[in-house]
Amino acid sequence: xxxxxxHVPLGKIQQYVDGALxxxxxxAVTLHLDACRTCRAAxxxxxxxxxxxxxxxxxxxxxxxAATVMNRLNITxxxxxxxxxxxxxxxxxxxxxxxxxxxxxxxxTGVITLGGGETDPGITGWFAAAGDTFAGAADGAGTLTAxxxxxxxxxxxxxxxxxxxxxxxxxxxxxxxxRKGSLRH
Amino acid sequence: xxxxxxTDRTVIDEILAGNPRxxxxxxxxxxxxxxTMASRLxxxxxxxxxxxxxxxxxxxxxxxxxxxxxxxxxxFYRILYNLCMSAITRxxxxxxxxxxxxxxxxxxxxxxxxxxxxxERMEEEELQSMISxxxxxxxxxxxxxxxxxxxEGMSYDEMAxxxxxxxxxxxxxxxxxxxxxxxxxxxxxxxxxxxx
Lengths: 185, 196
Description:
The structure holds two protein chains of two kinds. Chain A has helices at residues 10-18, 23-35, 37-54, 65-72, 81-109, 122-138, 144-155, 157-183. By secondary structure, chain A is mostly helical. In chain A, α2 packs across α3 and α6 (122-138) packs antiparallel against α7 (144-155). Chain A is rod-shaped and about 115 Å long. In chain A, 17% of the residues are buried. The model of chain A has no long low-confidence stretch (mean pLDDT 73). In chain B, α2 (23-42) packs across α3 (45-61), α2 packs parallel to α4 and α3 (45-61) crosses α4 (72-90). Chain B is elongated and about 65 Å long. Chain B is built from ten helices and no strands. By secondary structure, chain B is an all-alpha fold. The mean pLDDT of chain B is 83. Classes of the chains: A mainly alpha, B mainly alpha. The interface between A and B is large, with 37 and 48 residues.
């Protein structure tokens, strides 16, 4: 390879590396590079620089960046299926709480009775009978469950209704708090 | 730059049709490259992350005005670039211009076609780290051109749109940036050879 006195300008060598030269220019530079050690060295240098620049390390943004941006824009993210299920369950609980309260109001106002009569066992007659059955099954076992069932049996249906209202009320409140907390995200 | 305008356009149409949540996919698509660019321009990762967030928020709020004449990425990077330049100005650091000795170095580098044997001999890892440092030291205008070309993979036309300068200026800045980089890397490599 001989040394030529006329060299290709560096800008042209860069364009050659970028593949930005027209076909005729590209051919002329290729021929020159074959013949000129100096220009060939410059080409190798720029090619190496080019490769390294392309492989320059990239930053990785925090995975929560999109969520932060969406939050700043007040755009709520879509809920996942677990949330949807819980939300649906919460609605069911809310209906049950309302139903239990209505039953309580009806009982209190005497629209329906707790029963106990021979001809009108009332809605609690069924609970009392069920309680007796459970108490009978657990009789003599001495377990906590048996004593629990026994208590409800002895108190009659009204205790079951009150207990049901308390449980459903608790679940309704828990659901409300859960949803309130979730909406903040 | 990465050829995704059709997909971006589809997402934007979806957003404008009433599904704002689709914007998260655009954020995810551009966030890493945007952070790389902002981080190198302002020289501070935490500040860069704030600027990237601001750019995405601004882009969303102006989305209705985005007419699609250019790719979303080009339009978005123009917002980000302007924010980065404002941040640099706010810090009362004038965007780094060419210093006299750098002009001289550039002139010398351009006149000298060089004997880059040191560059050829350098280990890839060493060269990579040297280039990374030297890119950060480039004056902002040259650095922006180098980053948009190599990190974002933009064409000259796209770069001209982002940087809001004529096409000729883009080519000149990219050429000067690379020439200065090569000169500085060669000088450091030479020093290391002589020190050894």
